[in-house]
Amino acid sequence: xxxxxxxxxxxxxxxxxxxxxxxxxxxxxxxxxxxxxxxxxxxxxxxxxxxxxxxxxxxxxxxxxxxxxxxxxxxxxxxxxxxxxxxxxxxxxxxxxxxxxxxxxxxxxxxxxxxxxxxxxxxxxxxxxxxxxxxxxxxxxxxxxxxxxxxxxxxxxxxxxxxxxxxxxxxxxxxxxxxxxxxxxxxxxxxxxxxxxxxxxxxxxxxxxxxxxxxxxxxxxxxxxxxxxxxxxxxxxxxxxxxxxxxxxxxxxxxxxxxxxxxxxxxxxxxxxxxxxxxxxxxxxxxxxxxxxxxxxxxxxxxxxxxxxxxxxxxxxxxxxxxxxxxxxxxxxxxxxxxxxxxxxxxxxxxxxxxxxxxxxxxxxxxxxxxxxxxxxxxxxxxxxxxxxxxxxxxxxxxxxxxxxxxxxxxxxxxxxxxxxxxxxxxxxxxxxxxxxxxxxxxxxxxxxxxxxxxxxxxxxxxxxxxxxxxxxxxxxxxxxxxxxxxxxxxxxxxxxxxxxxxxxxxxxxxxxxxxxxxxxxxxxxxxxxxxxxxxxxxxxxxxxxxxxxxxxxxxxxxxxxxxxxxxxxxxxxxxxxxxxxxxxxxxxxxxxxxxxxxxxxxxxxxxxxxxxxxxxxxxxxxxxxxxxxxxxxxxxxxxxxxxxxxxxxxxxxxxxxxxxxxxxxxxxxxxxx
Length: 674
Prior knowledge:
By secondary structure, this protein is an all-alpha fold. Helix content is 48%, strand content 2%. Strand 4 (48-51) and strand 5 (55-56) form a beta hairpin.
């Protein structure tokens, strides 16, 4: 329950409210002014105070008495070139819409969606009810009046209301209103009281994605493999497997013991006076300093940072971020304690794992740092929330074994048993990350209050568990539902005044950072792609050796790297970043442009292959067209040339034959005689 807003005196010069970062509980309103709202975008006004435990604590930033300096006027965004929309905006044929509900209607795949497009079911219901009320107001000649019980569903602007109806238009409005009400009732009848309205969108998006993946799987064998990978990884669809007989290779240990914790030689060896500039010992400190100048930029070359830091990129980057954000001073974190913890944490990432290693953790943490600093989210989150997000990014894959959750479940691993097959690795990453705080001189949160520690732990747990890729569609649907619902019910005001909404944005922020590879410069993206595919293939080799079915995209003999990236962008990365871009518009437009460019590059690299009858073998629809290979095209061309040559030879023989009578021009038949 929220605490009523308490009146506070206007801030004077030098007061804590002059510096949003100094307040323990700030939150921001994400606004859409009328011109920007038509483009499905949110912008930001200035914050008001928010306490994670107690709710509101000071005046709204939109309150005219808050002072003239709190607001920030945001100009309407410049028009961008039309960009390809994700599958979320395609027509959902399984969910019929009323003919008049244009704000709910999804566009065709090839056309950009309308300015007022809404795709999440609950927001569609609210938009429809607003249309119903508007129509009823017109029919009752009450356009200028608001019923006292309609505070939550606001009237449209007066200029947008139609004129008083004639008899014909009144009849038409009445019929359209009945259609709207029927559709709303149908939707509301499907609601289940135990489920959130976000699940309406999640179920819809999953249904639409399943349809897309079905089409993809029917095109080719490689398309089927990409479809299976996306379905099993991002849709939480597990498959039953027959486990091979054998004895466990891991030694039995108490189930309460966190595995893989180990002592490192550097523990407790650092003192404040000996802490290096970037937390790591290196004889290339100058070059490292130059590289880390890009810490605040998207696309930092973490591979170069690793090379210059003695393969300690996570320590160097996190230490730099903490210094950049002044977190050591804010939370009284001793520098030697921070470095000791970071070195210990990085030592628990596996250097022999191709992708999920400290390089990836450093990249996600740095990406999170940049996303938190985006202008649309400037000063939105408290210092404690920022600390939690960066810490969650740093630990989110610690002690990753280089195999998937499903592999651990299929092999009856100790971790799967410990965590009951639920977000196995994510739970383990959290346990290790927090357990390492108990090592000697590693408690970087030692000076936090009990309340702060509990709040931080709660947020970190929620963020790291959200990195389980099987929760992707739920996470995406919840964010899109929240944004669109606030847009419909509050004229575009997204008020982050409760923990649920705030952590939802933070979860998606870290999730975006975790899936940010396709939005990075192409050379970096290609390196990440090579690494993730190498890790997949290593898992496939282990599955082959163990007699297990090889997981999708893990068979090095059949996987198509290029098609996997195109599919990943189309069905996972693009919808996610598209939604994030709507939230922080226009700050993420460059990310979307890079994403599209990278997709086109991988699309252009898909090799021509022989006609694949996979879809026909599986009863696929006739509408799918298959590309011919260059070789087949040449063969067809040669065949045509041979036929033309044969025809010329036959014609020549006919001319030379004495039995053939040649018609002179005079002897040709007159068309008029025919």
